[in-house]
Amino acid sequence: MPAEAESAKLPSTSSGMLTRSGEKHHHLERQREVTRALVIKSSPDGFTPEIHYQDNRGEYRFQCPHAGLFQCSITGLVFRMEGEAEVLYMTVPWDRMLLSQRGKRPAGPLFKFTCLKGSVSQLHLPHCEIHSEGGCDFLSVAHVTDDDSMEFLHHHETRETHVILNITQFSKYGITKDKEAPVSPIRALVLLFYKLPDDNNNSTLSVLLLPRNVDIDEVCKTRRTRNGDREIYIEINPNCRLTRDQEYTLSTDLTDEHHIDPENAEFVDYDSYTNYMPTFQLRLKTVVEEVNLLLEEHGGPENERIWDRLVSLPVTPPDGARAGKYNFLSSHKRFNCDRGQSSLTADFCSKHNNAAF
Q: Which residue stretches belong to region Disordered (predicted)?
């Protein structure tokens, strides 16, 4: 072929290469757009379920309008729905003996699910482990069938706040942890319930140390059932880190007559998903409107504070309402990830907003 002809062909070949290069660049940009859209779409839509009560337990109802990812504002559960559906769910007691026989212990509530219509392809169960501490490596998901047999499932993925499980059927699911797992700190809560002063000005502040993934609504209902109108929930930032079987000490700056019982107490997190008894009780014999509470490791480093809060104590029930009728759910939703939420939800939901589902 003459050199001139060969030379004449070059512009055409170069143009074709540029065209293909442009098409490749456009395709890559399109892929990036699709990926960005999927990441945005993978963030769950929040919902507040209907609540119905049976046998003193709350049953939640979620009526899903379409396919997508949805997060319960009360329990923190996340559902990946395949389309329009209706799901019922509630917490139920663990069989501790059966778990122990399998070398496991509870690491979250046990949820019972019923899908009335539609289908759910994935379930995200909230955990309270801290990834950097290694506790997530010892988690598993228990599947409890209707005949109360138990199997441990291989979960799809563990993320910062949730264990993700692909499912084909509903029954009971809950997170468990190996009994022999190394001890490590977990994300936890300090919840306060206050029994108002009686005619002799005696009052009691109950302090509960609980894992972060407890169903707080269930805690409040249980306390209300046990103590009726005499006790109210005190809203304050509860977030902290606690270590299983570690002893802690509660102290206060009060000079008025008071008594803290016990002086020291262990944090036993695996007893915390059905047993909502106080870890400490501060008994007051005079009317106190403010108290500084300090939680420290017993025998731990000096001046290392686990949790330190200034707590306001009401003299009368909030808004003039009767103590037992104070509505925790209307006060705030623990897993509602809107900005400007109460202090109880802020830290947890900040993590949820930054975590990819």
A: 1-32
